Amino acid sequence: MNSILLRCLVACALLVGASMPAQSQTPAWPSKPVRLVVAFPPGGIVDNVARQIQPRLQAALGQTVIIDNRGGAGGTVGSMEVARAAPDGYTLLMVFDSYATYPLVYPKLSFDVAKDLIPVTQIASNPLVLVVNPKVPAQDLKSFVSLLKSQPGRYNYASVGPGSSNHLTAEYFKAETGTFVTHIPYRGGGPAQQDLLGGQVEMMFLSAVLAQPHVKAGKLRALAQTGAKRVSAYADTPTVAESGYPGFEVNSWVGMLAPAGTPRPIVDRLQAEIHKIVADPAFAARLQEQGLTGIANTPEEFGAALKQEQAKWTRLVRERQLSLE
């Protein structure tokens, strides 16, 4: 009996010993710097959130996190680069809500948004704010809608291009209010805001973060915000839903994706670390000051949200026969 027990113990020891080299050969992640590709130029909301997250994520991972701005073609240039990267957790992607409309706007993309990239987490969201040039003779949404109805086609709205969130939100608004406003697309947020401030266009659905300094300076007037409830940075500005259009809700967001095939433990680690960051009271307060709300949802929740948005905007484009060229 003792000899049998001894043989069993020896066999177990050998098995444990044999497993140790295999485990030691599996590299821990991360063991080198992580590249965070921001699919837009510096200065925008995606870059803003990335640079707020970067030092905290770097500390949490114990490795350098390098921000690499790869703007172009509405974010598709940077997205394509990450879609083609090795799925090892060392190349990640930061995108805007326009990611949900890529298949609509760019039907000939060289990568598949549903197959080549996987969701990690949405990091933060903020409502869009309907802002008008101060020359517009309307102080609230109700009077503005009346003004638009009294002069159909008289007023113009700016967007950063066909299929962008401010384009589709404005068309959604027109459908809900029964108004007609002419779309003036621009090749970027800078030129669009410049003409809005100058009065060449009268209105725009602008990210709450980007609108805030202009509203505070009195250079733009905020009439409504598009979220389900007011954010503290715009506590005195009612939502579109509160202003007589229940159910109207649009939120701009920033999220992180990874190349398809990235190991699930790495995805889970990233989501968990970002969740800790946005849950920190000091960091959450900083986001709220800018009109942002931390999310850090699961990959499954992020994926479901993407599908809902894609369905919503696809339906709008088809019903209103919008040109996205």
From TrEMBL:
Keywords noted in UniProt: Receptor, Signal
Top-level taxon in the UniProt lineage: Bacteria
Signal found in the keyword field: yes
Signal peptide interval: 1-24
Record InterPro entries: BUG, Bug_dom1
Family: Belongs to the UPF0065 (bug) family.
Protein name as annotated: Tripartite-type tricarboxylate transporter receptor subunit TctC
